[in-house]
Amino acid sequence: MLNSYVMHRHTGPALGIMVWGGIGYHSRTPLDLIAAIFQQDNARPHVARIVQRIFVNHQIELLPWPARSPDLSPIETMWSMIAQRLTQNTPPATTPDQLWKRVEDA
């Protein structure tokens, strides 16, 4: 979370942090807080020239993703479960550090 690696953006009223995690049959990885490194699943909207130009122009690093690899959809269930647990907390987190602590505790 070095300031030189953080790109602040406003996408709505909710506080957010970017994390990476993996799931497997009867296992999961710990969640890791990440900076501006993106992963996408090579869907046509993601690999359009205009989108690729944005990544290059803004020097956004992409994690490699092999062609015809499985979709990311199984991870969406985990994100949904974490979001549910985080919304049960009151009062809501007001800083990224508070939010990260709650993600770790979930």
UniProtKB/TrEMBL annotation:
Q: Where is the Tc1-like transposase DDE domain?
A: 40-90
Care to name a GO molecular-function term for this sequence?
nucleic acid binding
Query: Which InterPro entries does the UniProt record give?
Result: RNaseH_sf (IPR036397), Tc1-like_DDE_dom (IPR038717)
Gene3D superfamilies in the cross-refs: Ribonuclease H-like superfamily/Ribonuclease H (3.30.420.10)
Q: What is this protein called?
A: Transposable element Tcb1 transposase
Origin organism lineage: Eukaryota, Metazoa, Ecdysozoa, Arthropoda, Chelicerata
| Gene symbol of the encoding locus | NCL1_45911
